[in-house]
Write a structure and sequence with these properties.
This protein is mainly beta and 196 residues long. It contains four helices and twelve strands, in the order E-E-H-E-E-E-H-E-H-E-E-E-E-E-E-H. The two termini are 39 Å apart.
Amino acid sequence: MQVVIGRIGRPHGIRGEVTVEVRTDSPDDRYAPGAVLLTEPASMGPLTVASVRWHQGRMLLALEGVVDRNAAEALRDVMLSAQVEDTDTPEDPDEFYDHQLRGLRAELGDGSSLGEVVDVIHLPSQDLLSIIRPDSRELLVPFVTEFVPTIDVFGGRVVVSPPPGLLELDEPESVPSVDPSADSVAESTVEPDSGP
């Protein structure tokens, strides 16, 4: 099973080093010299770590075969993954591998179904849960404690407390009905949500 452990950022210097946005609690193990990193897109790798160092709080990697700034620039925004056993779990009980979340039921606090978690989307600013609704539409929920307060891997579910308006935005657009005997179509109005 592959787990995302980071994203390559901008080049550092002229010798091919790259900055890495680290997404693992064990960077010393995952980015050890000689470690083979899988990539997304797959055509950019695999990449082998030649050396690693920290500079002003940011991880810098030298990768085998990446010897200049142009080669490093070509790797910008490539996602880095590592191979883990299906039975592995993170040390922190509040951390989860993507594969642990895929397939979980997504439901509201009252137990009503939202659908199924099909993926975790890793963006630079935050992660999103991709939930497929029963009618096959996708719902994207920010993967933060405020909106996903309960993750019960063993119970097979996540509880979602969506921000105001999210579920309404997800509803299919309603088509106004037309009374053939009327001269005009009535429009319905909705007041803006007074959420936070």
